[in-house]
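[job 0412] stage=complex_fold ligand=flavin-adenine dinucleotide status=START
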Amino acid sequence: MKKHVLVLGGGFAGVQAAIELRRYDRFDVTLISDRDYLFLYPTSIWIPTRGTTLERTKVPLEDVRRAHGFSVLVDDVREIRTKDRSVVTASHTLTYDYLIVAVGAEKLTPPGVEHTLSICGKPEVSLDVRERLDALLEKGGGRIAVGFGGNPKDSSAVRGGPAFEFMFNVDHHLRRRKVRGNFELTFFAPMESPGERMGSGAVRAVNAMLNAKGIGRRFGTKIASFRPEGVLFEDGSHLAADLVMFIPGSSGHSLFRRSDLPLTEAGFIRIDDTGLVEGTTNVYAAGDSAAIDGPPWRAKQGHLAEVMARTAARNIVRQEEGSRERDGYGRHINILCIMDTGDGAALVYRDARRQMLVPLPVVGHWLKRAWGWYARVSKTSRLHLLPRL
Ligand SMILES: Cc1cc2nc3c(=O)[nH]c(=O)nc-3n(C[C@H](O)[C@H](O)[C@H](O)COP(=O)(O)OP(=O)(O)OC[C@H]3O[C@@H](n4cnc5c(N)ncnc54)[C@H](O)[C@@H]3O)c2cc1C
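[job 0412] stage=complex_fold status=DONE, emitting structure tokens
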């Protein structure tokens, strides 16, 4: 009889785990997601500046299911009970032989965060950002502040790259409309040197880009609260803004606190290098849900989520085969991103030995668009041009 694997979450990690497991005929795989689509977050940065649409950024899970042959259940997971091998959703209680938890993360809620909008939260919020940007364009000008924060309890739970990308894309969008002079753009972050995890060379290059584009900086001052009229800092200073796009630090999913999973102080699931959840023999976690162990500059990223998912899936296969051999995700930790600017991009890469930022004017932007195309095609068909790690 085939073993039943439940995969929780239809993001990069969950989809990758389900695809990988279906390469082996010995499992029945059910993926549960509260959305009926995979959201391609990396290309969603263009929604507010009308470089793409919400619909073009979604990959229907039905298309992925059809290509790879697993089951999809669109439902809200409410509780995970590892002790009795079951998962409670809004409408079912399901049992499993193996479980992969990949429901992503949630965001911290600093005071007044409701006065900000984020491109890293619910996908539909990108449409609200677009609407607010359009309204400022209609008005003829305004002040836009863009920033991100961290989580003092987990240095990997920070997402700064998309904030830089958004800012550079807004700048490009305004220049194309020849109204850049009517807008004041300011980038803010509580760290002295935001983006440090990309490497010191990359930080210098990004700061040079902000300067060259006339984008103001407010670095190194902690945020006290957000107000309808802007950002208030702990030193009493204020940044006036008509639109604040802010990406808070991440925290563990609230579902985990209702479950019997071992958690870090920041609320992420404790796993070992194989992806196995501590204290269990048949529960794995992958992607943003998991606490990532590694160098201080490690970051929760989409490609790492996929590596962790493949690792978990392969280790389940080995467990079933009775093999003692296991894969580990730790040796694959790196930072890899194409930081888009609207009219080009920079390739950022860091691993244990190298740090680099390679400017890719014009072609970089199209490389990122090509990645978006490939991400969709590789998930909705069996086409794989790139080697699997
Ligand atoms: C704007 C933006 C740009 C980014 N750019 C890059 C980039 O260029 N390169 C890169 O490597 N990374 C990038 N990232 C990071 C990357 O997108 C994340 O690391 C990645 O999405 C994590 O994948 P995941 O599957 O762990 O979580 P998610 O993608 O968050 O997926 C979680 C899934 O779980 C589902 N879910 C949540 N709660 C429940 C529940 N209770 N019940 C059922 N289902 C649930 C969600 O609907 C979703 O399908 C970016 C992120 C953002 C926000």
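The chain is about 30% helix and 25% strand.
[job 0412] exit 0
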